[in-house]
Design goal:
By secondary structure, this protein is an all-alpha fold. The chain has one domain. The chain has ten helices and no strands. The radius of gyration is 17 Å and the shape is globular. Its main location: membrane.
Amino acid sequence: MEYSTILTLCSFSFLAGFIDAIIGGGGLIQTPAILFTLPQYSVPTLIGTTKIPSLSGSLMGAFQYSRRVAVAGRFIGPMMAIAFGASWLGAWTLTRVPNSFMKPFALVILVAVFIYTLTQKSFGQVSHRIVTAQQQRLRMWVMGAIIGFYDGFFGPGTGSFLILGFITLIGFDFLKASAHAKLVNAATNLSCVLFFANKGLILYSFAFPMALANLSGAFLGARLAILKGNRFIRVFFLLVIAATILRFAWDLLT
């Protein structure tokens, strides 16, 4: 039974890594899968377990993108450090206060994002500079703090929010935004892994096989995104945002 359970979780983790590498949102697949498959464990333990496969997928996606997409090296390192610390703070906060109020809040934001992206055909199709270098630095650091905290405290949609921020606030196209989002998401995932591991809230017998599957999916997803380009990623972005909206709406109504 345990082998069949691991195989099931690995299948979902592969799909999560594939989608997450393209546009984010893999947690919408991986997290419900492990919560449904292993109901005998506590929710913090299961969430902690998913962070190792999420980290492996983020690292693979970041590696694939960085080989083909120019990265804002001067700014992304400090942004990753800020996101790392903010994610740890978010995870710590989660152990002390409930996060149930986040779903309605995130749902409203996601609906607005979906409508805007759908109506603006040129959104994220080309990279253009909309701010000075100093403004870019400040915006990236603030974004790292806010979204990093969100990832540790709540999580779903983090990759999509990062991509949205890089496009609207910095002026990146979808491909470049995805590349930078993977780097920041790797930092937030690493922070969560260290936090949950320190608390003894990771099931390693499930986490490591899932990590291998997630990494494989991320490899294929990133390669496909790089091959197909911005239009393909835009379609995936809309699909993932729509799925996230439906998921949050279902949770609120049931």
